[in-house]
Amino acid sequence: MPMDRIQPSSSPDQKSSPTVLSIECLKGTSKADEWTGDFLHTGDIVEELRIGNSAWMKSPFKNGRSGVQKVLHESFKKKETSILVRVRRGVDEFAELQACIVPNDSAGKKQYMLRSIADPNYAVGFLDRYESDCLQLQASRSARMVSELSRTRLQDGYVSYRWERKMQEFLAVPFSSCFLSILLLPKASDQGVSHYNDLEDTLARANAWLNASQASGVPIVFMNIQTESLLTKISGKTASSTVNAGSLSDLSNLANASLYGFEDYHGVDIGVVRAVRLWYASLGGEFAIEIKLREDDTKLGFAISRTEEGFIFISSVIDGDENLPSTRSGLLNLYKEATNSTRLLVVSRVANQKVLPWIVSSTGAIRCFDTVSLSQKLSLHRHAKVPITIHVLLWDRALAIPSGANRSRAAATPSVLPLPPEVQLSRRPDEDQIQLLPPEVPSESRVVGDGPEIRLERDTAGESSFRFHDFSLSSNWV
């Protein structure tokens, strides 16, 4: 902590006051005991000096500060930099400092200061003062502490962080978060995609998607919702109808707008699209199921389908065959628990890759994973005899703990991705947790029928994926 340099006064009493060698604080310490007696302060009177193992130099010092600086210079040249300083405060209070001699470049050539051994941030120098001025400085110590308190500012900076190692060690799925969300773009109100519905419409669609997912049996709970600004280039009718916020009075018109614009320095019309991101979480976290394969396995023993909201789920599991991978891994037991609880056994990850819906386009199409390609990937695992790990969304964390005969074939060391604290702590209906409505799931959406029935609907998001409903073909079995 740099101290204020207080100039000696010119009172008549100084003529009778001797000149002494005093301490001048040059750099402050980072420790909290800076103002205690353990550290030297500006105005302390130097009584003795000892460099290395040499004899003590006692006050008064020949030629004062300049004489001491010469001694310090000679010692530094000889590489004898260890020094012990004893000072006096008032009449009978003493303190000392163990330091090393270092150059003081800011003071000029052949000038030295003392850096504390205990705290390298603390450095002091020497200054000739009248003894009366030193006593006056010592008496004003309390006032100087208050002054320093008002001038001290907190320091900040950047520190390195081992992100790769932390993401490897502290995530249940390395390099992948447990945060779940879907981004909804504002819906275009015309075929030319030049006008969009307002923000309230996007919020309503997000709310409807969440409620419909919960009603279909997807075990998720609302966490948070926010708007996200996405930049895009606009022109023509879109630019003329949106780039009109030229003053503060126009800002009120943008409160519920899904698209507004401005002109940059080059005259290019920039549009700001206000999308909505919905954050949600699984009621019971994510549960990992490892499906190990044997040489004689001819099928995995389960089928997958997808809800209208884009969630992949286990639509059926073969029962009665203990040798199937689905039975050995505990998937069958978990599927029965989901059926008894009127929940869907939603698949959240396949081989640690998230397979949840993640964006809704401006046409209203939900971008999600194709069940056909997913079935093919699972079948390739079976043919290659490579174990596959899938994560499912749980509705009760107690299901992750194998117990009793029903869990005898469950995984020995299951991994459950933790929930955010808000979900773990909000368990009572009278608190902020959203309570799921009793699901009303049509039987045909969760039970595989006998006849081959499949309905295809082309997505309108501009890609070549398909939306599959009510899978009952044998190709959906893996």
Structure write-up:
A hairpin with a 5-residue loop joins strand 13 and strand 14. The strands form four sheets. The chain has a seven-stranded antiparallel beta sheet with strand order 1-7-6-5-4-2-3. Strands 12, 13, 14, 15, 16, 19 and 20 form a seven-stranded antiparallel beta sheet that branches. Strands 8, 9, 10, 11, 17 and 18 form a six-stranded mixed beta sheet that branches. The model is unreliable at about 5-10, about 400-415 and about 420-475 (pLDDT under 50). It is an alpha+beta fold. Helix content is about 20%, strand content about 30%. The chain is built from ten helices and 22 strands. The protein has helices at about 65-75, 130-140, 140-150, 165-170, 200-215, 235-240, 325-330, 330-340, 370-385, 420-425; strands at about 20-25, 45-50, 55-60, 80-90, 95-105, 110-115, 125-130, 180-185, 220-235, 260-265, 270-280, 285-290, 300-305, 310-315, 345-350, 355, 360, 365, 390-395, 415, 455-460, 465-470.
Please, how many helices? Answer: 10
The share of residues in helices is 10-25%
Overall average pLDDT: 77
Percent of residues in beta strands: 25-35%
Main pleated-sheet profile? 7 strands, antiparallel
Walk across the major sheet and give the strand order.
1-7-6-5-4-2-3
Low-confidence stretches: 3-9, 402-416, 418-475
| Extended strand count | 22
What separation lies between the terminal Cα atoms? 71 Å
